[in-house]
Amino acid sequence: MKETCLYEKHVALGAQMSPFGGFMMPIVYTDIADEHRAVREHCGVFDVSHMGEVIVTGRDAERWVQHVFTNDVAGAPVGKIFYGMMCYDDGGTVDDLLVYVMSFGYLLVINAANIDKDWMWMNEQLEGFDVSIFNLSDQMGQLAIQGPEAEAVVEEVLGLGCKELKFYTTKTLVKEEGRWIDKVVPEGASAMGDERCSTRQKAIDNHLIVSRTGYTGEDGFELYGSHEHIRHAWEMLMASGRCKPCGLGCRDTLRFEVGLPLYGDELSAEITPLMAGLGIFVKLDKPEFIGREALLRQKSEGVPKKLVGIELQSKAIARHGYPVMADGRQVGEVTTGYRTISTDKSVCMALVETPYAALGTPLEVQIRRKTAPGTVVKKKFYEKHYKK
User: Residue 286 to residues 127, 255, 283, 290, 292: CA-CA distances in angstroms?
Assistant: First the structure.
């Protein structure tokens, strides 16, 4: 198991550590419900340094990203962020990811459990492109600061100007005389894609990437930087008393409540973006990208299964893999299920045969030896509160 740059900090705080995506990660510090509510009502901070970061540079950088990515980044200005998927030829999902448009090219943020697989797949797609890709996952750390008070915390505790950032935008700060300074085109930023590792590490050491995205349904920010910078930011946040350390346990409950997918549950090599209801991030009008033809056929013919929300009538909890039943047979299975902390309802997301996916459809979830009746509802069980 790998350890993030904050591993010792988590242990010192008494966090419950457990394997996740090849890393020993904090699952909970005190109580999942308390940490969940801290993000919904105030501010929580997550160590997400296990996530992967890949830099894309070169003359054909945009053309290559367009080739491997379902969303459309053509002509996008520096500072814009896109969510989307990388797909196999048959439309199955390699991974879901964020693409940051940077002054030096692109930053791709991928899921921790998929870093090695994604890296191999990306390298297989380089032929015919004048492009270089660099895996910086082991060199960079990442914090997610989430909640309605996140902006004030980032501004006042960390001293990082962030008010001007719109949702899904980013900027890069340069360290000068001990202070982080905004630079439209940071000097030396292109060195992040330099072949010489020492030069690339120096560029990482001198820069801090700040973005306004999130995986909780609340306003929030991400910080990307060297291990040293991330450790320093964590220490400042903890010393301030203005935000609560949060583990991956509540990260999952938070993202689930607002209908955000987790790779391996709601997306996989067998689950296409269209089956997961993420067609808005698949730009089929683009001339070309891997998986486009298969997804065009799927859209035309209709998807065989759809991801839906199900609200149970009882307090039973449906877990990943539990069968979903209708008309005396299995018509799907649960991908994620919880008793929601924010709304106190037993709900789940499930992949079901398309004829059973309409809102209001009665379904049953097989929970051990009993069946729990439920109804198809919207996958967003709680309203998002992003700052647009």
Answer: 20, 29, 6, 11, 9
What integer is the mean pLDDT of 99-104?
94
CA distances from 97 to 81, 84, 263 (A): 10, 6, 10
Q: Are residues 243 and 362 in the same domain?
A: no
- CA-angle at 249, arms to 246 and 250, nearest 5°: 60
Residue 204: what are its φ and ψ, rounded to 5°?
Answer: -65, -40
Closest by CA position to 66, among listed 95, 103, 106, 104: 106
Contact assessment for residue 255 and residue 215, using Cβ atoms and an 8 Å cutoff: yes
For residue 327, the enclosing domain spans 304-377
pLDDT tens profile 37-74: 999 999 999 999 999 999 999 999 999 999 999 999 99
Q: How many domains does the chain have?
A: 2
Q: Which two tokens stand for residue 34?
A: 């308390």
**271 dihedral zone (left: phi>0; alpha: psi -120 to 50; beta):** beta
